[in-house]
Amino acid sequence: MLPGPSKPKVTDSRLARPYCACTSSRLPMPWQLQLQELELATDCACGEEDAIGEWTWQEPEGNVQNSLEFSKNDTQVTFHPTYSSGTATVRGDCPFHKDHHHYFEIKMLTDTYGTDIMVGVGTDKVNIAESRYKFTSLLGEDDQSYGLSYRGMVRHGAGLAHESAGFCRGSIVGVRVDLWHGTLDLNGISFFNLRRHQQLYPMVSSTAAQSKIRLIYAASWRASLLVDAAKILAASTTADNAMQKKSKESEMEFDKAEISESLIIRNQADCI
Ligand SMILES: [Zn+2]
Q1: How far is the CA of 132 from the centre of ligand 1 (A)?
Q2: Which superkingdom is the protein from (predicted)?
Q3: Residues 128, 68: Cα–Cα separation, whole Å
Q4: Following DSSP, what letter does each residue of 70-112 receive, concatenated?
Q5: How far apart are CA 175 and CA 145, in angstroms?
Q6: Is the pTM of this model over 0.85?
Q7: Of 19, 94, 131, 176, which residue has the fewest beta carbons closer than 10 angstroms?
């Protein structure tokens, strides 16, 4: 008997969804409004009013001057503001602290298209300058970086894993780095042995003209028994939440306290 058709894998970026209804219309986008207006106009649930940011973006050495445009106190980046001639990459202004847990969230503000837009982490050896005239999926191209593509692929060491619907305009991508245990959680795919890297930075790369992202949350915690206990408690609470509806506020807290489980892209509303 012949086997039936295999179940298609969920790897299509067209299945990506924005997190919040604030991006589900063609009204002015939230980043064009003041936060107070945003709250009134859209009942936005993205949690940006928390404004927790331990670091911002910085143009890495070797990048072309006009391929990145910074705004909102260097939390917001526009890639290729005029036209694109390759891959522009932005990096956090400081490396992750050793022996700390880190969590950050990136909100995709524009439509995703083109060769690639990637969120991830990488060392100072990622060859940013060489890729600036190449259209490439930079993060994960070698063993110096790890990246999630908007198409849903996760890359490291030139290897590929297709595990998610990716992200689109309005999606929020969360990245969890534990430099005590040396692990990275990228869209539910775990990597280990990250302590071998001397320094790791948050990174986002894009080949798409006028693509725009914003860092909406960036925090770290020194490794401790308290943090471990909180993670265990959160995991059990997350399981409980499958049976009981919790308030939106507490849900945000769990997401942002680095204690949600493996679902890292926060998707709720339908894609535009
Ligand atoms: Zn929102």
Answers
A1: 32
A2: Eukaryota
A3: 13
A4: EETTTTEEEESSS--SS-EEEEESSPPPTTEEEEEEEEE-S--
A5: 13
A6: no
A7: 94
134 phi/psi in degrees, rounded to 5: -120, 140
Q: Which CATH architecture has domain 13-256?
A: Sandwich (2.60)
Closest CA to 65 of 42, 82, 53: 82
Query: What is the 148 CA–ligand 1 centroid distance (Å)?
Result: 22
Low-confidence spans in the chain with pLDDT less than 50: 1-11, 27-28, 36, 39-40, 242-264, 267-272
Cα separation, 267 vs 20, whole angstroms? 8
Q: Say what the pLDDT of residue 52 is.
A: 79
- Distance from residue 107's CA to the centre of ligand 1 (Å): 9
Using the Cα atoms of residue 175, residue 70, residue 116 and residue 145 in order, give the sign of their dihedral. Answer: negative
Please state, in angstroms and rounded to a whole number, the distance separating the CA atoms of residues 17 and 28: 19
Give strand pairing partners of 149: 118
Which CA distances in Å does 124 have to 31, 54, 179?
Answer: 30, 19, 16
How many angstroms separate the alpha carbon of residue 238 from the centre of ligand 1? 22
Contacts of 227 (CB under 8 A, 6+ apart): 101, 221
CA distances from 211 to 68, 78, 113 (A): 10, 6, 9
CA of 34 to the centre of ligand 1 (A): 13
3-state secondary structure labels for all residues of 231-266? HHHHHHHHHHHCCCCCCHHHHHHHHHCCCCCCCCCE
Ligand 1 centroid to residue 22 C-alpha, Å: 4
Q: How far is the CA of 11 from the centre of ligand 1 (A)?
A: 24
Span from the CA of 45 to the centroid of ligand 1 (angstroms) = 5
